[in-house]
Design goal:
This protein has 144 residues and is mainly α. It is built from 6 helices and 2 strands.
């Protein structure tokens, strides 16, 4: 199976940018927006806003070139869903006046997205494969 890694990188860049903006503005609503985008993109991959911006604006304009690689999309969806859950928890903590916890979770997502964007290591994918090694139903051990 082929996965466009440029779409993944654009998604990570948007996540980082919006969460940094949320931190600068102290805006829990922006964290909630990122969480909603991530969770929607996990549940319905073709509906992911950042992916759609890539597919319908950045790629057609030639601003970002496709980078198709033999890969399994499932670990990447899992990683995005995990990030969505962490940003949802971040939002709830921020709304509940637990700022340190809320921003800590947001910064965790920023750090892991940056690790993937700049170093090519997907921590969520790693967790997915570790769960597969433990024969947990629904997780595959090997990637394509």
């Amino acid at each position: 199976m082929q996965v466009d890694h440029s779409a993944l990188r654009v998604n990570q860049a948007f996540i980082i940018a919006f969460l940094l903006l949320a931190f600068i503005l102290n805006a829990a609503l922006v964290v909630a927006f990122v969480s909603a985008v991530m969770l929607m993109g996990t549940i319905i991959p073709q509906a992911g806003l950042f992916k759609r911006i890539y597919q319908h604006l950045l790629k057609p304009q030639g601003w970002v070139k496709p980078d198709f690689q033999a890969d399994d999309p499932a670990p990447h969806r899992f990683a995005q869903g995990l990030g969505g859950v962490f940003t949802l928890a971040s939002t709830l903590a921020l709304v509940g006046n637990l700022s340190l916890l809320g921003w800590g979770l947001a910064w965790l997502v920023i750090g892991l997205a940056a690790l993937n964007l700049f170093a090519g290591f997907c921590a969520g994918c790693f967790v997915y494969y570790q769960l597969g090694k433990r024969n947990i139903l629904g997780f595959k051990v090997r990637h394509v």
